[in-house]
Automatic annotation (TrEMBL):
It is found in: Plastid, Chloroplast. It catalyses: demethylphylloquinol + S-adenosyl-L-methionine = phylloquinol + S-adenosyl-L-homocysteine + H(+). NCBIfam families: MenG_MenH_UbiE, PRK00216.1-5. The gene is MENG. This is 2-phytyl-1,4-beta-naphthoquinone methyltransferase, chloroplastic. One of its GO terms (cellular component) is chloroplast. InterPro entries: MenG, SAM-dependent_MTases_sf, UbiE/COQ5_MeTrFase. Keywords: Chloroplast, Methyltransferase, Plastid, S-adenosyl-L-methionine, Transferase. PANTHER family: 2-METHOXY-6-POLYPRENYL-1,4-BENZOQUINOL METHYLASE, MITOCHONDRIAL, METHYLTRANSFERASE. Its EC number is 2.1.1.329. It is an enzyme of class 2 (transferase). One of its GO terms (biological process) is phylloquinone biosynthetic process. It comes from the Eukaryota.
Length: 251
C-alpha cells in the first residue's frame, strides 16, 4: 500500500483478518455519528436493507459497481464501506490480481465486514483489506485508485466538500467515483412516492431497529458538491424508480 507509513495493523479478535488503522492526525469527524454506526453495526446488515428495499439494494449496488468502471487487476476503494457489501462485489470484479480497500471510521462495522470475509470461502475475497480511517483525511497518496465507490456514505459525513476533495486527490486521472445514495427526484410523482415510502415504511421499520432519527433525512441532493472540487464530468442516473441516484464523477 503506497501510504503504509500512515497505517498500523490492529488485530481482529478471533479472526485472522487484520484491520489496518490510520495513524494520521485526527481531523474533524462526528463522534456522535461514529458512535451511532458502531452501535448499529449488529443490526445494519443485508437483512435490514433487504427488508427496507425488498431486496432491491442488491441490484442498486451491482449497478454502482458497474458504473465505477472497475476492471480486472484494478486497485479500488470502497469508501464508508460499512459491513462491506460493495467491497465484496468489487473484489469479484477486480479478481485476484486486483486490490480492494474497504475504509470506514467504525471499528464495529469493519469487524462485521472482516468476519463476513473470514466466513465466506470465496478465494477472491483475499484481495480485500479493511482500513479504519476517516473519509475526510484519507491515508493514501495522491492518484492511488483506479476507481472509488461510495454507498449511502456521503450523506452521513460532516464535511461533504472535504470528502469530495479527498476522493479527487486519491483517484487517478480519468478514473471514476461512483456514488450511490438516495435521490431527490425532480419529478413530483416520484418524489411523493419516495416521501410516502420513507414516512410509512422505512421510518416505522427503522424505529423497530432503534434507527428512527437516521431515517428522517434521506432526501438530499449531493451532485453540486462534485463539480466544485474539479471533477471533469459528473453524470447522475436515477434508479429504483427515482428513489435512488447514482452519481458517476470522472477525474
Ligand atoms: C438501502 C437502504 C438503506 C441504506 C441506509 C442508508 C443510510 O444512510 C443509513 C443511515 C443510518 C442507518 C442506516 C442506513 C441505511 O440502512 C434501504 C432503502 C429503502 C428505500 C428508501 C425504500 C425502498 C422501498 C421500495 C420497497 C423499493 C421498491 C423499488 C421499486 C420496485 C423500484
Ligand atoms: C449507511 S452506512 C453504508 C454502508 C455501506 N457502504 C453500504 O452501502 O451498505 C454509512 C457508513 O459510513 C461510515 N462513515 C460515516 N462517516 C464516515 C467518515 N467520516 N469516515 C469513514 N466512514 C464514515 C459509517 O461508519 C457507516 O458504516
Amino acid at each position: 500500500m503506497a501510504a503504509s507509513s500512515h497505517l498500523c495493523i490492529r488485530s481482529s479478535p478471533g479472526m485472522n483478518r487484520p484491520i489496518f488503522r490510520s495513524s494520521r492526525r485526527p481531523v474533524q469527524c462526528s463522534v456522535e455519528r461514529q458512535a451511532l454506526f458502531n452501535r448499529i453495526a449488529p443490526v445494519y446488515d443485508n437483512k435490514l436493507n433487504d427488508l427496507l428495499s425488498l431486496g432491491q439494494h442488491r441490484i442498486w449496488k451491482r449497478m454502482a459497481v458497474s458504473w465505477s468502471g472497475a476492471k480486472e487487476g484494478d486497485n479500488v476503494l470502497d469508501l464508508c464501506c460499512g459491513s462491506g457489501d460493495l467491497a465484496f462485489l468489487l473484489s469479484e470484479k477486480v479478481g485476484p490480481n486486483g486490490k480492494v480497500i474497504g475504509l470506514d471510521f467504525s471499528k464495529e462495522q469493519l469487524s462485521v465486514a472482516s468476519s463476513r470475509q473470514y466466513l465466506c470461502s470465496k478465494a477472491c475475497y483475499d484481495n480485500i483489506k479493511w482500513v479504519e480511517g476517516n473519509a475526510l483525511d484519507l491515508p493514501f497518496s495522491g492518484c492511488y485508485f483506479d476507481a472509488i465507490i461510495v454507498g449511502y456514505g456521503l450523506r452521513n459525513l460532516v464535511d461533504l466538500h472535504k470528502a469530495m476533495e479527498e476522493m479527487y486527490r486519491v483517484l487517478k486521472p480519468g478514473s471514476n467515483a461512483s456514488i450511490l445514495d438516495f435521490n431527490k427526484s425532480a419529478d413530483t410523482f416520484s418524489a411523493s412516492i419516495q416521501e410516502w415510502m420513507i414516512d410509512n415504511v422505512v421510518v416505522p421499520v427503522a424505529t423497530g431497529y432503534g434507527l428512527a432519527e437516521e431515517y428522517k433525512y434521506l432526501k438530499s441532493s449531493i451532485q453540486e458538491f462534485l463539480t466544485d472540487v474539479g471533477f471533469a464530468n459528473a453524470v447522475h442516473y436515477e434508479i429504483g424508480g427515482g428513489l435512488m441516484g447514482n452519481l458517476v464523477a470522472t477525474r
